[in-house]
Design a protein that fits this description.
This protein is an alpha/beta fold and about 240 residues long. The protein is built from six helices and 13 strands. The chain has helices at about 75, 90-95, 100-105, 105-110, 195-205, 225-235, and strands at about 5-10, 15-20, 30-35, 40-45, 65, 85-90, 135-140, 145, 150-155, 165-170, 175-180, 210-215, 220. The structure holds zinc ion (ZN) (2 copies). One zinc ion binds near residues 70, 72, 160 and 179.
């Protein structure tokens, strides 16, 4: 147990994708470690069932910027392990509390087969809570996170949740999209969802120039795939998530 909890995949020269293969598929998210010249970026943090930070091969004394794409439990469990924590202002109060009503951790606890393997001895799902991780800085549309050799622009892409953000490396044409868009059933029926805003977000994605999109779930997408998923959403023909 421990080191083998997280699956790590090198998906680019400076980019590692992590996931939790033992977590129920509905809560099994992708999260990312992007290495920059002057600082590293960690985007999302899994369920927090095992310590994440020691598994990231971080360099001593190199700054680490942690960015949460949104408030849900499958993305913010390990957020508290990092000192510099960025997220959207619309969910600032929620990050400070990590209440079930915002993170949906109670849905995870109620699943049969929440995990296929216990993350540690004597673990049981009913005791799992997401630890508060107050933001040290809020971000909004147009803000830039500078890693020295890479710059990521913050895109506010509400709909799945009010504070959902994407991070766009315009030079490389890479978009980290969180739960805004991915291959698989999309979720727009949560208390924090807004379908009208989601439709606006999907139109933005259709008009966006990118090469590759890393979603919060599922495999990486080409721009063509992303735009097709967005079009299907607007036409009302996209897949819906089921637990
Ligand atoms: Zn989500
Ligand atoms: Zn998710």
């Amino acid at each position: 147990m421990g080191d083998d909890w997280y699956e790590r995949q090198q998906v680019g020269k400076d980019l590692t994708c992590l996931s939790e293969p033992h977590v129920h598929r509905y809560f099994a998210a992708n999260f990312f470690h992007l290495r920059g010249r002057d600082a590293d970026l960690v985007i999302d943090f899994g369920m927090g069932l095992r310590p994440l930070r020691p598994c990231l091969d971080l360099e001593v004394n190199k700054p680490v910027i942690a960015v949460a794409t949104h408030i849900h439990a499958d993305h913010v469990g390990g957020f508290h392990e990092f000192e510099t924590r960025l997220g959207h202002a619309a969910e600032e109060a929620a990050f400070a509390r990590m209440a079930d009503q915002d993170t949906l951790a109670d849905v995870f606890r109620g699943l049969s087969g929440a995990v296929s393997q216990a993350p540690c001895l004597s673990w049981s799902p009913e005791h799992h809570h997401i630890r508060p991780a107050p933001l040290t800085q809020t971000v909004d549309e147009g803000d830039v996170i500078d890693l020295g050799d890479k710059r990521l622009r913050v895109l506010h892409l509400p709909g799945h949740s009010h504070g959902s953000i994407g991070l766009l490396d315009e030079e490389a044409g890479l978009l980290f999209s969180g739960d805004v868009i991915y291959v698989g059933g999309l979720v727009d029926d949560l208390p924090c969802s807004d379908r009208a805003l989601y439709r606006h977000t999907m139109q933005r994605l259709i008009d966006m120039e990118v090469n590759c999109v890393y979603g919060g779930h599922g495999p990486a997408m080409s721009a063509t795939q992303m735009k097709e998923i967005a079009r299907q959403y607007l036409q009302g023909t996209s897949a819906k998530a089921t637990i």
